[in-house]
């Protein structure tokens, strides 16, 4: 399952912890945006681990599932490329 995970963390310590956490699960495409190719159970694991870091009164985490058809329509302007880890794709 390909997901885009983005977050808005108000405290620098929590912000750094969140970034370090998500580096273990995906590729950072911007500081607070990650592309991840994970099994559904791993997506839930990431969400639960992120909740341990967050202050839900101040912070926000968004996880967007991206279907393969939509992923193929991604448009990039300027620097960058679509991250593909075809070893993990199920056809």
Please give a structural write-up.
It is a single chain. The protein has three helices and four strands. The longest helix has 14 residues, at 40-53. The protein starts with a strand and ends in a 20-residue tail after the last helix. It has a four-stranded antiparallel beta sheet. A hairpin with a 2-residue loop joins strand 2 and strand 3 (33-37). Helix 1 packs antiparallel against helix 2 (40-53). It has one domain (2-88): Alpha-Beta Plaits, CATH 3.30.70.240. It has 91 residues and is α+β, with helices and mostly antiparallel strands.
Summarize the structure.
The protein is of the alpha+beta class.
Number of helices: 3
The average pLDDT score comes to 87
List how many beta strands DSSP finds.
4
Largest sheet, order of strands side by side?
Answer: 2-3-1-4
Biggest beta-sheet profile? 4 strands, antiparallel
Shape: globular
Unreliable stretches covering 5 or more consecutive residues: none
- CATH architecture title: 2-Layer Sandwich
The CATH C-level name is Alpha Beta
Distance between the termini: 12 Å
Helix content: 25-40%
* Overall structural domain count: 1
- Protein structure class: alpha+beta
At CATH level 3, the topology is Alpha-Beta Plaits
Order of SSEs, N→C? EHEEHEH
**What is the C-alpha radius of gyration, as a whole number of Å?**
14 Å
Percent of residues in β-strands = 25-35%
């Amino acid at each position: 399952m390909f997901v885009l995970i983005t977050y808005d963390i108000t405290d620098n310590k929590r912000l750094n912890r969140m970034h370090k956490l998500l580096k273990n699960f995906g590729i950072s495409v911007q500081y607070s945006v990650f592309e991840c190719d994970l099994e559904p159970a791993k997506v839930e694991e990431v969400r639960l681990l992120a909740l341990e870091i967050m202050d839900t009164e101040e912070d926000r985490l968004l996880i967007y599932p991206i279907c393969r058809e939509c992923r193929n329509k991604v448009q990039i302007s300027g620097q960058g490329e679509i991250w593909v880890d075809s070893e993990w794709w199920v056809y």
